[in-house]
Amino acid sequence: MKNINWRLASNHLILLIGVIFMSLPVWVAFSTSTHTAETILREGLQFWPGSNFIETYREVMFEEAGVMKSVLGITMLKNSLILGIGFAVGKVIISMLAAYAIVYFRFKLATPLFWIIFLTLLLPLEVRIIPSYEIVAGLGLLDTNFGLIVPLIASATGTFYFRQFFKSIPDELLEAARLDGASPWRFFVDMLIPLSKTMIAAILIIMFVVGWNQYLWPLIMTTKEENYTLVIGIKQIYQILSEGGELPQYQKAFALTIMATLPPVLVVLFFQNWFVKGLVESEK
Amino acid sequence: MATVKLNNIKKVYPNGAEAVCGVSMAIENGEFIVFVGPSGCGKSTMLRMVAGLETITKGDIEIDSKVINNVSPADRDVAMVFQNYALYPHMTVRGNMAYGLKNRGLAKAEINTKVNEAAKMLKIDDYLDRQPNQLSGGQRQRVAMGRAIVREPKVFLFDEPLSNLDAKLRVQMRIEIKRLQRRMGVTSIYVTHDQTEAMTLADRLAVINDGRIEQMGAPIELYNNPKTLFVASFIGAPHINLIPARFENKKLVCGNLKLPGFKNLPEDIELVLGIRPDFLRPDTKGQLEIQVDLVEQHGADNLVYGALKNSSNDTELCFKTTQNTLPDIDSNLKLKFEQKHAMVFNKSTGERLI
After folding, report:
1. Residues B218 and B264 both lie in one domain
2. Closest Cα of chain A to B80: distance in Å?
3. C-alpha–C-alpha distance, residues B216 and B34, integer Å
4. Does A42 lie at the interface with B, CB-CB under 8 angstroms?
5. pLDDT per residue over B151-178, tens digit each?
6. pTM of the entire structure?
7. What is the ipTM of this complex?
8. Any bridge partners for residue B253, and if so which?
9. Domain A6-281 is classified in which CATH homologous superfamily?
10. A191, B88: Cβ pair inside 8 Å?
């Protein structure tokens, strides 16, 4: 008989309880989404998957009037992807360029400017949402991807991370590159971008998830159904469900929730190696 | 290949600190110049001003009789080897060496030939496809030099390139740098705080202190004939023996010790007598007496240390002797020096009097 390491066992027990606590609601949501509306109404939430999986998800994703009046689930998924990717890519580009300017170029007020950017961390979107809306509406950009994404991409967090990273790159590298005849642009492309690869990946992942979960801004920016993102769709579907005398379509609401959760989970799963590397590694 | 000229260059930092205060020198074609001095003396700043990495506050620098104060570092046609190598960590050895050529718009085939040639010369042709983090310190240093050589610059600049290597490798690389420089005949400026490196590498040596050149000349000239106390104590290993003294009644006086044979010295100021360890030898008629407290055996030579007797303060002397001379610890030993090897300095100004 082997001795049981009680310490290790109890550690695992605690972890297991944590995992169950976190994932059980998601599991129940998934299971319930695979049952028919009648079953749910009669028997409540379901713990084991039912037989209605294909039908529910097809209706939600591909059928007109499946969830909303006209927009398809797949269209909302596409809108969400555009927002998530545009948001993440835009943030990385803007914050990298800003950090590059702050760290490597000598210009007046560089440090105060950085701190002003940094201070905007304290101001969430909600504080400036009315002026932002006013500007975007004034430019006639409501209901466009451009208007949806661009006002969000200035990023103090990203700028701060990149600034810290650039500062940790030894000066000699810049000097060697200058002697090798690299222009500022070439230095950025040939040195900084490859060196920040893992950093870029980590920020892309974080920002994709943040962008994906944006709610308030897309809500007020989009007026037409075909521009809804999944996160907004969930909100709307509950409204639709509770109206009228029909049978509430809970399984569809759950299905849409699962669909909205899936992409960020997949992104983190696939890129977790990069993500961890970007946060801990410092190979310079 | 080129000549380099510094005309009264000065560097003042924005906070008012003066790093280089008016340095002039003319470097001949193909010469190997070493700047040596303690840390913070401004030697690296001078090198970086030649490279274009520091602005020049005053004066100008000429390469091939052309003032280059406002020429960008890339267009000065100089190559630099850094102390921490500064290799591009994400590029292979080949990529590192080719980068400068690529930026100059050379054709791929030409770049390849040049890189291969330089790699062969430095014996790094086996590692061309590795990344810097897969190389040892010595190999990285070679790659850094390869990156400089490949460009065939007018001037090589070395900023303490061997400081990060272990002692054995340092000696080996030192010899290689010297050979390489001879072979390529490229004008070079080399910064170091290591006096052995300075002595062995330099065609001419500039000893720098507090942003000024104390003395410049052939290494052996500086060793034999230092103009100041600073140069005398900086150049030479082991360190020169320095004995505080005064000149009274035509004798050099140090405590109870009176040394005859000195002439024409000022009487009322503090002096320092300097004698190199190489020029002291045991002799029963010696002028100085020490009580031996340590013998270091270096192999061929022994270094004997002891406290100078009859002096007013604790002055440690050291002399170099052969393998077989092994005086007992605590024994007394008389040491003799030739008058011509004695140097006398003014203690406060550092100026050499004899």
Report:
1. no
2. 7
3. 10
4. no
5. 889 999 999 999 888 888 899 999 999 9
6. 0.81
7. 0.84
8. B246, B258
9. MetI-like (1.10.3720.10)
10. yes
